[in-house]
Amino acid sequence: MIVSPQSMSFSEPLALQSGASIRDYALAFETCGTLNAGRSNAVLICHALNASHHVAGSYAGRPDSQGWWDTMIGPGKPVDTDRFFVIGVNNLGSCFGSTGPMHINPDTGQVYGADFPVVTVEDWVDAQARLLDRLEIGTLAAVMGGSLGGMQALSWTLQYPQRVRHGVVIASAPNLTAENIAFNEVARRAIVTDPDFHGGNFYQHAVVPKRGLRIARMIGHITYLSDDVMNEKFGRRLRSAATGAGDAPDGTDLRYTTQDVEFQIESYLRYQGDKFSEYFDANTYLLITRALDYFDPALRYGGDLSKALARATAAFLLVSFSTDWRFAPRRSRELVKALLDNRRGVSYAEIDAPHGHDAFLLEDERYLGVVRAYFERIAKEAAS
Amino acid sequence: MIVSPQSMSFSEPLALQSGASIRDYALAFETCGTLNAGRSNAVLICHALNASHHVAGSYAGRPDSQGWWDTMIGPGKPVDTDRFFVIGVNNLGSCFGSTGPMHINPDTGQVYGADFPVVTVEDWVDAQARLLDRLEIGTLAAVMGGSLGGMQALSWTLQYPQRVRHGVVIASAPNLTAENIAFNEVARRAIVTDPDFHGGNFYQHAVVPKRGLRIARMIGHITYLSDDVMNEKFGRRLRSAATGAGDAPDGTDLRYTTQDVEFQIESYLRYQGDKFSEYFDANTYLLITRALDYFDPALRYGGDLSKALARATAAFLLVSFSTDWRFAPRRSRELVKALLDNRRGVSYAEIDAPHGHDAFLLEDERYLGVVRAYFERIAKEAAS
C-alpha cells in the first residue's frame, strides 16, 4: 500500500489548555482506504512519543518506509483499509511534519525553540477535531491509539463524545504514576542540562543536545521493554562474544573497563540512543513527555475516574499487556472499571506477552486477533 | 555510641581480578564493640554503592552523624555491639576514605582519575581479608551486607569459606539482570558524556561532572523505590500545592512548563541529584556500578549457581523485600535454592514491605526481628 503525506494549514488561533494559543500552524496527516458515501467509516489513529502520521503503508519508491503500525493497519489487516478510511495525524509540537519547536513563530518571526507553547492531550484532540472538520468527517467510526495515543483516544470520547462511536485504547492509562513522571523528568533533565541545549534555542547555535537525547532514549528503551525480554534478548552476554573477538565461556574475556561497552545490552542501548539523537528534536521530547505527565481526566473530578468518564458515550476496546510495567494492566483495569460504572460497552483483553510496553507495536496473533474481531464488529454495525 | 574512623595502609601489591594490581593503598574502617578473648565474635559489614565504613554510631561532637546502618547495628540492636565486634570497611575505589580515583597513583605521582584499576567484588573481599589479617581475626562470626554488600558477603563464603561461619545476604542477587546493567549503563553514560568529566581526569580541570552525577542519582532513586511507595509519598501532587503557592483542587494551578518543576516527585529527584553531585566522585560511581555488573560467581561454572556455591561452608540468612524490583525476591530464592542443593543451612525471610530496594536500610520490625533472632543464634552458638 502506497501512501503520501499531506499537510493542512490553519490560520485561526487554537486556544490551548494553558491559556496560550497557537495560530498559523500546519498538521501533517496521511490517509489510507476510501471514505464511504455516508462518511461513516473513518478511523483516526493517534500516535505516541516517537511516531507520526505515517501509520501504515510505505512511500512510493521507498519499500522500507513502512508506517509504525503497519502490522495493524492496511488491506486485510486488523484495521482493514479495504473497509475503513484511516487517518493518521502528526501532533502539534512534533518534529515529523506538523508545526513544532523548529518552525517559525509568526508572532516573532523567530524559530519557536523553547517558546513553543506547552500542548496537552486535550489540545491535540482539539487540533485533530479541526482537521476532521476540514475533511468533513463528522463522526468517527473509531479513534484508536496505544500508550500516549491511547490517552488521546480516551480524551476524544470525553471531549467530543458525539463524534466517536468507538474508542480503542491500547497499553494506556488514565494518568501517569509518580514513577512514570520520574522517568520522564530524568530524561528531560538530561536534555535540559546538556550544554548544547542552550535553554532550548540550540537551533541558533547550530548544535543539537545529542548527549541528553541519547540518555533520554536509553531510559525510554529500558522502560519500554520487560525485564524478561531483556534477559532473553541480551541477558548477561558480552559484546566480545557477539563480535567473535573472544568467546571464552569462563569469563576470562572480560575486558575490565568502566567506559567501554562490555555487555550486549550496553551496545544495544548506545546504538538506540545514537540513532534517536540523530533525528529527534529535543524540544519536542520535552513537550511530548509533559503532555504525558499532565494527562489526568479525573483531576477536575476530585480524582473520581468514574465521574470523569461519565461524559463518554462511545463503546470501548481496551487492551493491555501482562509484562508492561510502564502502562501496567492494572491501569487499564481502572479504566474498564470506571467505564463499567457508567454502564458503557467495554471489551477488554489482557494479552500475556513478554515484550513489555513495546508489545503494542509488535506482531502478536492474539493481540491482532482481538483488534481484528472488534473492527469486524464495527464494520458490521456500520453496514447494518 | 561514639565511633572513630581508622585507616590501615598496605604497601604490598594486591593482585586484582583484571590482571592489574594496586599497591600502597589504604583502607578506611571503623569498629564498634569489643573483640572477645577467643577473637571469635567479629562481624564484617560490607557496604553498597553510596555507603562507607561508617556503619553505626556517630562521631564525637556530631550527634547527627549516625552510620548508614544505625537501625541495625549498635548496643542492644539486632547486630548487638554488646556481644559482637563489628567492623565496617570502606572499599577500594570509594570516595569516602579508602584509596580511590582522587588519590595519587604511586606509579605515576599523578591522581589516578580514570586510571584507577577496575575493582571487582572479589577484589574487595581480598582486600577486606588482608585487613582482617592485620587485625588478627582469623574467622568471622558473620559477614553481612545488603545489595552490593550482600554480593560481597556471598563472595566471602566462596573465596574464604573457612573464615566465615555465617553469611547474611540481604536484598541481593547472584548477579545483575540485563535491566539492572542497563540502568547502570545509562547512569555511566550520563557521567562519561558530561563535558566536565574530561575522560575521568576532571580533577586537573577543577570541575566536577555534576550534570552526569545528578542524572545517575535520579535514575538510582527511581529504581531503589517501589512504584507503590512513590505513589504514596508523591503521587501526582503538584509542587505548588506543597509550597502553598496554589492549591486549587481542579488542576487550574498547573503552570504548563517543560523545564520547571511541576510535580513533587520532580522536586524530590532534583534535590537528591543535587545533593549527591556535591559529594560523590564520578570515577567511583563508574567503578562501583561496574563491580555490580561483573559480579557473577556462577559464570565459571557455566551458569550453574548450585555448583558455584558448593564451595561455601557457612550457614546463611537471606532476606528479600516484596516490592524490591531491582533485587527482586526471586533472585534471593535462586540463591536459597542453590544453597539448599548443596545442603547448606539456610534461613530465608521474604519481608512484605512497600519501600522497594530501599527497605533494607529502613526500620521494619519484622525485618529487624528476623536479623535479631539470627544473630542471637550466632551468639549462642559462639557461647556454647
Q: Short description, anyone?
A:
Chain A has 384 residues and is α/β, with parallel strands linked by helices. Chain A is 35% helix and 14% strand. Chain A starts with 5 loop residues before the first strand and ends with a helix.
3D architecture notes:
The structure is a homodimer of 384-residue chains. Chain A is an alpha/beta fold and 384 residues long. In chain A, 35% of the residues lie in helices and 14% in strands. In chain A, the strands form 3 sheets. In chain A, strands 1-4-8-5-9-10-11-12 form an 8-stranded mixed beta sheet, with helices on both faces. In chain A, strands 2-3 form a two-stranded antiparallel ribbon. A two-stranded parallel sheet of chain A has the order 6-7. In chain A, strand 9 (142-146), helix 2 (148-159) and strand 10 form a beta-alpha-beta unit. The longest helix of chain A has 19 residues, at 365-383. Chain A is globular. The two termini of chain A are 28 Å apart. At the A-B interface, helix 3, helix 4, helix 5, helix 7 and helix 8 of A face helix 3, helix 4, helix 5, helix 7 and helix 8 of B.
Distance between the termini of chain A: 28 Å
Counting copies of identical and different chains, the oligomeric state is homodimer
- The low-pLDDT segments of chain A are 242-250
Rg value of chain A:
21 Å
Order of helices and strands of chain A: EEEEEEEEHEHEHHHHHHHEHEH
Count of DSSP E strands of chain A? 12
* General shape of chain A: globular
Backbone structural class of chain A: alpha/beta
Summarize the main sheet of chain A. Answer: 8 strands, mixed
Strand order, sheet with most strands of chain A: 1-4-8-5-9-10-11-12
Give average pLDDT of chain A, whole number.
95
The number of distinct helices of chain A, counting runs of at least 4 residues, comes to 11
- Biggest interface, CB < 8 A: A-B, 66 and 66 residues
Strand content of chain A: 5-15%
Helix coverage percent of residues of chain A? Answer: 25-40%
